[in-house]
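Schema walkthrough. Field components (list of strings):
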Amino acid sequence: MLNFIARRIFQSIFVMLAVGFIAFAMFRYVGDPINNLVGQDTTLAQRAKLKQELGLNDPFFVQYARFIGNAVHGDFGVSYRQRVPVRQLIESRMPATLELSFASAIIALFLGIPMGIYTALKRRGVLSHSFMTISLIGISLPTFLTGILMILVFGVLLRWLPTFGRGEVVHFGWWSSGFFTESGWKSILMPAFTLALFQMTLIMRLVRAEMLEVMQTDFIKFARARGLPERIINFRHALKNTLVPVITITGLQLGSIIAFSIITETVFQWPGMGLLFIQSIGAVDIPVMAAYLLMIGFFFVVINLVVDLLYFAVDPRLRVQKS
Amino acid sequence: MNLPTMVKRTALVGALALSMGLGQAALAKTLHWAYQGDVNSLDPMSLNETFTLGFQNSFYEPLVTYDKDLKLTPALAVKWENPEPTKWIFHLRKGVKFHDGEPFTADDVIFSWKRSLTPGSDMKGYGAMASDVKKIDDYTVEVTTPKPNPILPRDWVFLYMMSKSWAEKNHTTEASNVKGGNNNYANLHEDGTGPFVVTSRQPDVKTTLKRFPDYWNKNMKTNVTDIVFQPITQESTRVAALISGEMDLVRPVPVQDWPRLEKVPNIQILRKPEARAVFIGFDQYRKELLYSNVKGKNPFQDKRVREAIDLTVDTNVINKKIMRGAARPLGTLIADSVNGFDDSFGKPYKTNVKLAKKLMVEAGYPKGFEVTLDCPNDRYVNDEKICQAVASMLARIGIKIDLLAQTKSKYFGKVLLQAGNKTSMYLLGWTPSSIDAENSLQNLVACRNAKTAAGQFNLGGYCNPKIDDLIAKIGVETDQAKRNNMIKQAFTMLRDDYGYLPLHQQPLSWGVRKGVKVEQRADNVLDMRYVVMP
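Field assembly_structure (string):
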């Protein structure tokens, strides 16, 4: 087991190095950062000097090696746009993204799984049909549009919820949390739901399909024949056997929630890392972009590791094989 | 119920809901406002960019500043004089306090000037306009300029005064540097003399300010006590925040949303031509265009081709169709709010497609030619749409435009001189930072010269030695009437030479909650001194 984890962590280093390498190879095509760093009255000579000093004239692999060399020491450089250390910048934005991802993952799981079970067991029910319809909308509407529609309805027309931002936050060391204020709760509802909608429908459809398949299998028939109550058949035998693919997908989706909350964060001006990344692209803020991409690579590796470990917990066959 | 009554009732209910929702905010006179991006830094010398400097103007002040009409008005200097061509004397205001309570004196002026010349500073250009700043007494400074400078007070409108003692105490005597280092205290903290004090700052999220009780000017128009500034990147979210009443002021508002927003009862759209002139330039210095099907020669070097283009593109149509009539069509590179503007050279060229076609035949291009037009799509108001319109107009005389519209960092990374100047035709906008025509002449019209930094944004390499002679004289002429006359001559020559395709002054487009009164400064600065809340 420990061996397995160690091997995975070792692999993750390669993943991150590769991500960084590809990122730096692409930075040459995102535009010229210098024009965003200086005003229009700055002379060409001063611009050239700044470019030289920032090392932007070096070949990309030299820039990449320098970045990795500093990153090993925990130094990710200084943001071109905000002129503060990148680490500090990302640290200040990470809580917003993680809280949003956490909230939407909870919504997606706690609505998606019950809805999936329900639609599998009561296939012909009216409620099932409406769940299926909602899920179609959830899968086909782009996040951007859902977000804007929600702002229009709950922010502009009904004025129940704030249209943007994170509300008031409470600080615990470097962590800032919106879960302890009323405005924080109000603010997170719309973005969390927008972000959760797609995942929720995905989980629901997945659980439904798996459940339907499992319900046809022999061991369920056998359980019925043994006269076990429906509740035990459904939840102890059927549901448990559907969970392995659900965990895989949920895990991978959690990664993409964190990585691709970009659109939701932009629509709601949610001050997380996704918004930071978009702003950094606009300003060609290379140090921030590089650090962000590395970190997302790291997240994916860690989430995959956790998913693999969860398999052991859920599926006894794996434990048997290993031991 | 007939329709008008219903509308009235709806409006009444809306107004009622609004006044209830915002009642508390109105008492405290807190201005909530949003812009599309955040200020990059609180350090007044880190970035010479209008939005950042305009925002900092709430807490930092220069010696001489602009009023709402961009006319010079005293700030930290009460009067100034130009006794010799290379000397300026500033008489400083007495009794001014920095936010930390220290008095403002001549030492702070000298310190601020020196700080503007430190490595991280982006205001070195302004600092270099003086070769020495001497203290005559605590409230008088004498500035020596390396060459006669007729407009130094104007040039220094964005050179803000910082406290020497505060900077020394907090180790921020050098400007914040993008490369990092220990001098970044001023990046997140301020100690100015301005009417507001920054009380908190979360970059990209929220910056709050409150009124400075010891501010020297007790006769300011504003009644705002607190300011909450939050950047909102997405246009639709920004507009939604205004309609929902969370914001008192947002800028900019997309031009295409105007007709819809005019129907919303609780908000108002403010528009006015900005001091930014938008124009199209042509590569006139390469022997052969980089992106064209004409080989062996450069069609833009032929004055007849440039004339044909200027006679074909109708800026009035662009204004009407794309800018909804809110732009101001131009025939030159400076806006009407810029010192030196004159209608004699400022009015648009008169469209004459028939003559244009004839000129194209004479120039040897009866069938026209192909050329790539570089265009940003997120820098100026409706920039990509303008380029599309220009392309379709030029098709009438056979010039086939291959439009390359891209995001501003990519665009500038292609066309600017520092990036290789790889363009044959480009759309650019320019606001002279001094709101004076000389800056536009220097940057856009003067022959390029790497040593003097002239013609740095003359991306087409236009060069007319006669205009260059005039620019040199304008730079040192201290008689304002003579100087303006020479500016007029220079721009008239440029106009007769069809050096550029001028388009218009783009419109400012701000949205405010009904009842909030602001002055729209033509340089697109929200001047807090003039904001009055209901």
